[in-house]
Write a structure and sequence with these properties.
By secondary structure, the protein is α/β, with parallel strands linked by helices. It starts with a strand and ends in a 6-residue tail after the last helix. About 30% of the residues are buried. The C terminus is likely disordered. Bound molecules: fe (ii) ion. The site of fe (ii) ion has 2 residues, from strand 7.
Length: about 280
């Protein structure tokens, strides 16, 4: 795997941080089968070298099915959608003075490339895996992908704990689902994202960050529900629904990725017939 990080002028961004995670060759993340894959398998954080590049060796990921035994499966089934995802690798690319990129890179040769259940496989995010066959007949694949970063509107942050909290907020608020009851009073205010009280969702590992985010939100925070897991079981979803109801929240902030976003969607769909993104 070769990752290049460039600015809009094509100049390398040395020191950029590249965080990545992916499924294995059978389409499973390590936390789905903790007895079969070591902790943090196929997850890593790298720093770009002076040429703005990161090289590492991994396995070629396979696509996978979205489990359909929970609310997300029911939702996809109800619209007749095949719950599968083409092979991909996840990335968060960050550098001081630049807008953080959170995205996925897809295998363009995957036969399901045009049918991503999460609608993420856009042409700009499709990579071209190259096949090499060694003399001993072993097959190796390589992928060379360039991320182009835009300058941040407010450069100079992200250096200390205070800024890290700000970054968490920004990630959560820009990447989050923001659902509002259609009958609720429109709420602009200085935050400008239309919520009166927000329940913060996270995984158990991110509970500390979620509590920091709730603290940052101040009296708009309605509490933290930190039990989201990948492919969240139905009983945990029901616990989250109950927590949302008793918290008096009118909004969900999802800190993290698919687990919390999926849980946020489930809460929104359970409570309101209309959702607002
Ligand atoms: Fe994934």
């Amino acid at each position: 795997m070769k990752v290049r990080i460039r600015d809009l002028d094509g100049c390398p961004i040395s020191g950029a941080t590249v965080e990545t995670w992916q499924a294995n060759g059978q389409g499973f993340y390590e936390n789905q089968f903790p007895d079969l894959q070591p902790d943090c398998n196929l997850r890593g954080i790298f720093s770009a070298d002076r040429a703005g590049q990161v090289h590492y060796v991994t396995v070629k990921p396979a696509g996978y099915a979205v489990p359909n035994d929970g609310p997300v499966g029911q939702l996809l089934g109800s619209i007749g959608y095949v719950p599968r995802r083409p092979a991909h690798l996840h990335f968060i690319v960050a550098a001081d003075g630049f807008e953080t990129i959170t995205t996925q890179i897809f295998d363009g040769a995957d036969p399901l490339i045009a049918e991503d259940a999460l609608f993420n496989a856009k042409p700009d995010l499709v990579g071209d895996f190259l096949k090499e066959v060694a003399e001993d007949a072993r097959v190796r694949w390589s992928l060379d992908f360039t991320f182009v970063m835009a300058r941040a509107a407010n450069p100079g942050g992200n250096r200390d704990d205070e800024d890290r909290t700000v970054r968490i907020c920004r990630l959560a608020l820009t990447g989050a689902l923001r659902f509002r009851h259609p009958g609720a009073e429109r709420c602009g205010g200085s935050r400008g994202w239309g919520a009166k009280r927000a329940l913060v969702l996270s995984t158990p590992n991110q509970k500390g960050d979620a509590e920091a985010l709730a603290s940052r939100l101040g009296d708009i925070a309605a509490g933290v529900f930190a039990e989201a897991t990948m492919h969240t079981p139905l009983e945990v979803t029901e616990q989250a629904l109950a927590a949302f109801k008793t918290s008096g929240a009118d909004c969900v902030v999802a800190l993290g990725g698919g687990s919390t976003i999926g849980l946020g969607k489930a809460i929104a769909n359970a409570h309101w017939r209309r959702t607002r993104w």
